[in-house]
Amino acid sequence: MIKRRTVITGAAAAAVAAAATPSAARAATPSATSYGGSATLPAGKGIPAVVDPAVDLGSQTPGPEITWSDSIYFTSMVKAGRQEFGVLAHALAAPNAQGLAGIYALSVTDKTNGWYKSHSTTLTAEQFHWSRGKLDITLPELTWTGDNTRMTVKATAPWGSLDAQFEVTGPVMNYAGTGLFKLVDVQNYEFAFPAMRTSGTLVIEGRKHAITGTAWLDRQWGPLPQAFQRWTWMNLDLPGGDKVAIWDAVGTGTENAWATVLHPDGSYDLAAVEPLANHAAEPWTSPTTGAKYPTRWRITIPSLHARLDVKVTGTPEQELVLVAGSRLEATAAFTGTYNGRNVRGENYVEMIGAWQG
Questions:
Q1: pLDDT tens digits for 4-39?
Q2: Which class in CATH covers the domain with range 11-353?
Q3: DSSP state of 22
Q4: Where are the domains of the chain?
């Protein structure tokens, strides 16, 4: 297997430094390479992975922090005839929080007709069941089962339901190359299945849609930053097969904007990204919460010769309101240049915190 050099610049270097700290690594590290298998390629210079998708789809042992959380989340771009939808489902355990044990959310964006529906609930410890060591989640409105090759999600909301199957079709992405990085002032674990074939049935207001498409699954756990102000996360699926995950996390007096780039052969590039707020535009103000979010960005990654314009699609009104706060979880599209070539594609944008446009 070809191993590319790893481009580590600026904020990306900080992420890698945190991931490479021996005391931060978990017990055993994988040694084999697999598409959705039990291990992943190391990042450049032999840095080992500290996550194992074969077991880490199961729930994690909580840390002591009140803000510690355990999250599994997918975004999917699917079609049903001439209609195009964005679908998102999220299960989050918050075992140390006061008054709740977890959160469930489901949202759908009709990109063709320009409407958005969302649903979220808070859950008690008796309602939130997530097995240790395997993907087996049972909530009142959600079941999520399977493994690191295939999985099934069945989710319901007052306005409809989702019954979808997912098949992993490419290598796993370990954020920062190892699966461990610094989120403002704390360490988080995160990996993704950025290439998943998706099929199933989506029901909206009694109308059934047979859907097919692709999905990106993210698995993350750890505490929220103490000095947190806001963050933006984006996932980019490039035409040549590269998968790009962007984090721009802003704390008190700090900002880390960086990208993990997974190539089709399983190797990585890590690179600094220009702060997204520098070229954020076209703000939308939520009539529900009063929060303001940009809906357009210019993404610049100098070392990868990338310059991409990203814009929310469907409707700007894609705010997901949770008990822990509101956020933008929006379908988007991008155009521009990457490695000197013209590219275009679809993605999701997540924005949390004090954004002012």
A1: 334 444 445 455 444 443 333 333 222 222 222 223
A2: mainly beta
A3: G
A4: 11-353
